[in-house]
Design a protein that fits this description.
alpha/beta, 11-stranded mixed beta sheet, 16 helices, binds glutamine
């Protein structure tokens, strides 16, 4: 019998729908895999064994009763621990939320359940999604299945590593500056940041509200599209949710899989195709661009002159918004409370709770953001960064008058060794050099495996106009059909 954990979500859903495997068998196979490898990978913070088996048996019962099943029914999914799950621990990778069991499901999780997917558990992440390596998790790092001495990217390293380790065929991440696409790139998996507002933030622990975007992670482009379709679309509970249907990403992925890109115009971002990336990454990227040309795409160079300011603008906007969002962790409302012995004031308890509950990177961002927003500095920092954001958006708008989508490497470097960049925050921030512009603009981006450098995966990023998510799926699926597969060494 084929190992169920090696199959794609689309294949697993087919087996379940045809009755060739039960959802319970599929789920048990993935739970067994987690037991076998997760002590080395540490992708999961919490595994909901009983909940998963119950959900799987419910799908099997519906099938037995002849009820219609959705396209992902019975397929396991792992969820980044930044999305609330009713009654199931949700930490956002932080000690300050240790022990908190939310009283409600996030919209994404509610839709996953409605689609008949089986939630295996919650995945590891950098604290409050601040980081690029998962080393800033309060619960210890996740390891990259390609090389356990290396990082799996971040902040959603758990969701990406769980895919590469075959612990789950699908997972959910959140992308504020690259936290879905960058882990996808360095683990050889597919990661999608949908259009901002195309997926609901209701129940997403907020980091930077004008940037945060939940999205799908998978091992194939089609699987990511199926998951995107299941979780996307308007949500009245999120005031920034776009009241429009999800672009037809599944049809686009299927169209792209034919390997024909005739009539598609792609722009290589000049500022991201030269120096700034490792030579191995650039070589893999250039080879992938040649492949896209052979598939029929017309490829031109496009200049986006303000992209070079995206990183500094992001590191003012995101910390500013986080300093406001994290004010809710006051030692009163959620999780941890320190020093409440009856003799201390509210301020003292709040301060002791934050001192013990927040890690160094979170504290750095709160301090930075509070400073940037303070009166007297607001115009010079936050206001200026917002103007840069407008210029970056204009770069995108101008570029999309010339081409259908933009391409670049997803990340400047392949997975680095654990510990290599923790001493210098700026070195860590550079991981998102190429992914941040889409977040500032609000458009969608996908990372798809495009090659190897020194035996480690390299991702190609496709960026599309807002609400044209389908375009990037077509391009990514075409590339996928022509290169690879890229499979990590056995664990
Ligand atoms: N690595 C970036 C940061 O540290 C992006 C994080 C994210 O997308 N959540 O802020």
């Amino acid at each position: 019998m084929t190992d169920l954990t090696s199959l794609s979500a689309a294949e697993l859903a087919g087996l379940v729908a045809r009755g060739e495997s039960s959802a319970a068998e599929v789920t048990q196979a993935h739970l067994d895999r987690i037991t076998a490898v997760d002590d080395r990978v540490h992708a999961f913070l919490h595994v909901d064994t009983e909940g998963a088996l119950d959900a799987a048996r419910a799908v099997d019962a519906r099938r037995a009763a002849g009820e219609p099943l959705g396209p992902l029914a019975g397929v396991p999914v792992a969820v980044k621990d930044v999305l609330t799950t009713k009654g199931i621990p949700t930490t956002a990778g932080s000690r300050i939320l240790a022990g908190w069991r939310p009283p409600y499901d996030s919209t994404i999780v509610r839709r996953l359940r409605a689609a008949g997917t089986v939630m295996l558990g919650k995945t590891n992440m950098d604290e409050f999604a601040m980081g690029s390596s998962t080393e800033y998790s309060a619960f210890g790092p996740t390891h990259n299945p390609w090389d356990l001495s290396r990082i799996p990217g971040g902040s959603g390293g758990g969701s990406a590593a769980a895919l590469a380790a075959y612990e789950t065929p699908l997972s959910i991440g959140s992308d504020t500056g690259g936290s879905i696409r960058q882990p996808g790139a360095v683990t050889g998996t597919v990661g999608v940041k949908p259009t901002y507002g195309g997926t609901s933030r209701f129940g997403l622990v907020a980091f930077s509200s004008s940037l945060d975007t939940p999205g799908p992670c998978a091992r194939t482009v089609l699987d990511a599209a199926l998951l995107h379709e299941a979780i996307g679309g308007h949500d009245p509970s999120d005031s920034t949710s776009i009241p429009a249907p999800v672009p037809d990403v599944v049809a686009a992925a299927r169209l792209g899989a034919s390997g024909d890109l005739a009539g598609v115009r792609l722009g290589v971002v000049r500022e991201f195709a030269g120096e700034g990336a490792e030579p191995g990454v650039l070589a893999a990227f250039r080879a992938a661009v040649d492949t896209l040309t052979k598939l029929g795409a017309e490829v031109v160079e496009v200049s986006c002159p303000h992209f070079q300011y995206a990183l500094p603008a992001y590191y003012l906007i995101a910390p500013s918004e986080c300093s406001s969002n994290l004010a809710r962790f006051d030692g009163v409302r959620f999780g941890l409370r320190v020093g409440d012995d009856g003799n201390r004031s509210l301020e003292e308890v709040m301060s002791a709770t934050r001192e013990a509950g927040f890690g160094p990177e979170v504290k750095r961002r709160v301090v930075l953001g509070t400073y940037a927003l303070s009166s007297g500095y607001y115009d010079a920092y936050y206001g200026q960064a917002q103007k840069v954001r407008t210029l970056i958006t204009r770069d995108f708008t101008t570029a999309f008058e010339q081409v259908d989508a933009l391409v670049s490497p997803t990340t400047p470097f392949v997975a680095f060794p654990v510990g290599a960049r923790t001493a210098d925050p700026y070195q860590m921030y550079l991981a998102d050099l190429f992914t941040i512009p889409s977040n500032l603009y609000g458009g969608p981006g996908i990372s798809v495996p495009c090659g190897l450098a020194d035996g480690l995966p390299v991702g190609l990023q496709v960026m599309a106009p807002t609400m044209a998510d389908d375009r990037m799926y077509r391009v990514a699926a075409a590339l996928e059909s022509a290169v690879g597969p890229f499979t990590p060494p056995a664990l």
